[in-house]
Write a structure and sequence with these properties.
The protein has 309 residues and is α+β, with helices and mostly antiparallel strands. It folds into 2 domains: 199 residues, Thrombin, subunit H, CATH 2.40.10; 96 residues, PDZ domain (Pdz3 Domain), CATH 2.30.42.10. 19% of the residues lie in helices and 40% in strands. The protein is built from 5 helices and 20 strands. The strands form 4 sheets. The protein has a 6-stranded antiparallel barrel with strand order 1-2-3-6-5-4. Strands 7-8-9-12-11-10 form a 6-stranded antiparallel beta barrel. A hairpin with a 5-residue loop joins strand 8 and strand 9. The longest helix has 24 residues. The protein starts with a helix and ends in a 5-residue tail after the last strand.
Length: 309
């Protein structure tokens, strides 16, 4: 006759065995990347011949030594990187490693059990915890708009950034990162990684239009709102303009207040970033600008932040 203690022990043993198997499964697709001093960083064999990792951990673009799960050493080359999402794509020839199995992360919620897996050296390592928060419509500190991110209540040890977040079967839910939110352990969902990776493999960078201004929200006076029949009172005050930037070339000035971009009201810096993101390559954005009590329209052709800015 089994006791409650026996049942609990059996349940714990089964969980322990399942987690160990999940780490082993995920480890078949996790590599060590030797592209910085001291501890190697982790990467995931995401597609055949393609490895993804955290960009901040890979500090060179050519002749990058990579240790595969079977211990073989190969050399990779950066196919592209995106600082805003902190992702880098590496191409490697002849890598004999399994492509990481993928899991649907849409059902993840606060409290879901997850594993962070890394290879900060020759052997695989793991950390166990939960999803502590699910962020919708999050923007990174470098300006990338990300539909969904996961905040993690687990340890992302040195060398873990760029490794996978996995479920109990060892399938990849996302890519771990300790720097994207400035020290808070987070993971980008696999779907977001795929979208960035497609652009990196196609053009080497992710296109992000910018005009070269720094802005801050400002409240307009009631008299200005009434005189110009504005729909609302907030705007964006230009506090700096980069030399030779699109904004500089278009004639925008310090102290101008941006009211609209392509007829979209601007009340927060994110509003301007969202408006610019919808401008096609080579296209222009029409800004409604308040200057010295007068409203004027200024056309600005954004540049591509992915090409060196």
């Amino acid at each position: 006759m089994s006791t409650k203690s026996d049942t609990s022990s059996s349940t714990l043993a089964e969980l322990s065995s399942q987690l160990a198997a999940a780490v082993a499964t995920a480890g078949n697709s996790v590599v060590a990347i030797h592209a910085r001093r001291r501890i190697p960083s982790s990467g995931i064999v995401w597609r055949d011949g393609v490895i993804v990792s955290a960009s901040h951990t890979v500090r060179r673009d050519d002749e990058i030594p990579v240790t595969l799960p079977n211990g073989d050493s190969v050399v990779a080359t950066a196919a592209g990187r995106d600082p805003a999402t902190d992702l880098i794509a590496l191409r490697v020839e002849g890598a004999k490693a399994h492509v990481a199995p993928r899991a649907d992360s849409s059902s993840l919620r606060v409290g879901s059990l997850v594993l962070a897996v890394g290879r900060p050296g020759r052997n695989v390592s793991a950390s166990f915890g939960i999803i502590s928060a699910v962020g919708e419509g999050w923007r990174s500190w470098q300006g990338a708009r990300i539909d969904r991110v996961f905040r993690l209540d687990l340890s992302v040890y040195d060398g873990f950034s760029g490794g996978p977040l996995v479920d109990a079967s060892g399938a990849v839910l996302g890519l771990n990162n300790s720097a994207l939110a400035r020290g808070t352990p987070m993971a980008l969902p696999a779907k977001a990684v795929d979208r960035v990776l497609d652009e990196l493999l196609e053009r080497g960078h992710v296109r992000r239009p910018f005009i070269g201004v720094a802005v801050q929200p400002v409240a307009l006076s009631a008299s200005v709102v009434k005189r110009h029949k504005l729909p609302s009172d907030p705007g964006l005050l230009i506090v700096s303009i980069a030399d030779s930037s699109p904004a500089d070339k278009a004639g925008l000035l310090l102290g101008d207040v941006l009211l609209e971009a392509n007829e979209q009201a601007l009340g927060r810096p994110d509003d301007l970033l969202d408006a610019l993101s919808s401008v096609p390559s080579g296209g222009a954005v029409t800004l409604k600008v308040l200057r010295g009590g007068t409203i004027k329209a200024v056309s600005v052709t954004p540049a591509d932040r992915g090409e060196g800015e």
